[in-house]
Design goal:
Layout: E1 14-16, E2 20-24, H1 29-34, H2 36-41, H3 43-50, H4 55-60, H5 63-69, H6 76-82, E3 86-91, E4 94-99, H7 100-103, E5 104-106, E6 109-110, E7 117-124, E8 132-137, E9 148-157, E10 162-171, E11 178-179, H8 181-187, H9 194-207, H10 218-242
Antiparallel strand pairs: 1-2, 2-7, 3-4, 3-7, 5-6, 8-9, 9-10, 10-11
The protein binds flavin-adenine dinucleotide (FAD).
Residues 5, 25, 52-53, 57, 60-62, 64-66, 68-69, 74-75, 112, 117-118, 145 line the site of flavin-adenine dinucleotide.
């Protein structure tokens, strides 16, 4: 049976709500790139969406479709995980909300039951405007799936000169998109120095569980995690300090 969801009005639209930024599952990657609300409150998601496929892919592909594939190299996953997004799932037994991290359960597997739909994604109010950065490394500059992609979101306390709630999410280096909790814990409360960010990148690399395949070896992917996490942290940190 084929179910056409393309006209489901309650799965469309981007809106600022009391809970946060609500993005319907049918919102396309191009709509994310263009949305003034996304650019203001969660620009890292627009940064990630901009790297997906080509214009044609972005015009047709939806955020919900990207997440529902459960592909570990998806580009929207790390950006949303770094912002601690939640998803709403609906089916005959009702509606449930889960953390995006719990939505991904394995390679190409999600928490969706066969009779459920992903309705929307909510970037929680606490993450809106949180300085963040997304970086992707592929074998070409355009139309490339990520060998590794990384998103980092941080706040910097100007009085203590310390990282607050650093979040690091990694794609294409584990069975699902993952966070790097040990690297995050290392950074929490530390001064935002380049040494600390480099060490966090090294720790994140130890948390990755990449495979070797025809595109890259596991060791190469681990090295990419270390470098990209450091650079994403530095970019997010510069944005945090620029905003103060
Ligand atoms: C040429 C090309 C290049 C690409 N490059 C990239 C890239 O660089 N980065 C990247 O991340 N992705 C890339 N993709 C993947 C693709 O763009 C996304 O996964 C796309 O967003 C899928 O969206 P869709 O709406 O077409 O979903 P579909 O392909 O229609 O659906 C994908 C799966 O999810 C299910 N599904 C869709 N929506 C829902 C929902 N709301 N609830 C429950 N299940 C749902 C479908 O049943 C299907 O199983 C590329 C794809 C192509 C064809």
């Amino acid at each position: 049976m084929v179910l056409d969801i393309s006209r489901a009005a309650d799965m469309r639209g981007i809106a600022a709500t009391a809970d946060g930024l609500r993005i319907g599952a049918l919102v396309t990657h191009s709509e994310l790139v263009r949305s003034p609300l996304v650019r203001e409150f969660a620009p890292v998601l627009a940064e990630a969406a901009r790297t997906i496929g080509a214009v044609q892919t972005r015009n047709l592909g939806t955020l919900g479709g990207n997440l529902a594939t459960g592909v570990p190299s998806m580009d929207s996953g790390p950006a949303l995980l770094a912002l601690e997004a939640r998803v709403t799932v609906a089916g005959p037994r009702g509606t449930r909300t889960l953390a995006l991290g719990d939505f991904f359960v394995g390679p190409r597997r999600t928490a969706l039951a066969t009779d459920e739909l992903l309705v929307d994604v909510v970037v929680p109010a606490a993450s809106l405007g949180k300085p963040a950065s997304f970086l992707k490394f592929g074998l070409r500059k355009g139309q490339a799936l990520a060998l590794v992609n990384v998103a980092a979101a941080v706040r910097v306390d100007p009085d203590r000169r310390a990282f607050v709630a650093p979040r690091i999410a990694l794609g294409a280096v584990a069975p699902t998109v993952i966070r790097a909790p040990q690297a995050e814990a290392f950074l929490e409360g530390r001064p935002p120095t380049s040494e600390a960010m480099a060490e966090a990148g090294r720790i994140a690399a130890t948390e990755a569980r990449p495979i070797s395949d025809f595109r890259a070896s596991a060791d190469y992917r681990r090295e990419l995690v270390s470098v990209l996490a450091r650079r994403a942290l530095a970019a997010a940190c510069a944005r945090a300090q620029g905003a103060q």
